[in-house]
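R.M. (postdoc): so does anyone remember the format we settled on? I'll just put the structure tokens first.
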């Protein structure tokens, strides 16, 4: 399963919570990845106007306030799609089999309903919500 979405949220929480611009090296250390992967993810976020980086200045800055940035917007930026798409269907079911002949439309309808619910939840949840939950967990740790 692709982890770009969770990595993007991790990246954005770090950037939003930092008083100074963070480099891809610093972020990669926290994400447990490498700087080139971070630059790939931040490039997608920059393309959608969520992040900014400037030539000659190391680091990234958030262009959208955390309370105005829905998880759905982040998901769409990372996946370069306007729809939330979580499930894929297997490609070659056997039409000679009664199950194989009907499985794709049945699952497509079922999966789309689940994805619509997920999309609604992602639209209702913001980066600020995730940051608040993070603060609570950090407070419980102390």
């Amino acid at each position: 399963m692709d982890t770009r979405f969770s990595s993007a949220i991790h990246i954005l929480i770090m950037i939003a919570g930092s008083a100074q611009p963070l480099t891809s090296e610093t972020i990669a250390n926290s994400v447990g990845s490498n700087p080139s992967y971070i630059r790939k993810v931040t490039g997608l976020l920059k393309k959608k106007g969520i992040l900014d980086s400037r030539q000659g200045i190391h680091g990234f800055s958030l262009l959208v306030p955390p309370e105005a940035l829905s998880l759905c917007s982040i998901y769409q930026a990372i996946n370069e799609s306007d729809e939330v798409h979580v499930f894929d269907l297997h490609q070659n079911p056997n039409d000679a089999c009664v199950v194989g002949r009907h499985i794709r439309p049945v699952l497509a309808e079922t999966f789309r309903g689940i994805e619509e619910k997920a999309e609604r939840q992602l639209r209702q949840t913001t980066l600020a919500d995730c940051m608040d939950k993070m603060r609570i967990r950090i407070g419980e740790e102390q």
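R.M.: ...and that's the designed sequence above, right after the tokens. Also worth knowing: The mean pLDDT is 92. Residues 58 and 141 are 32 Å apart (CA to CA).
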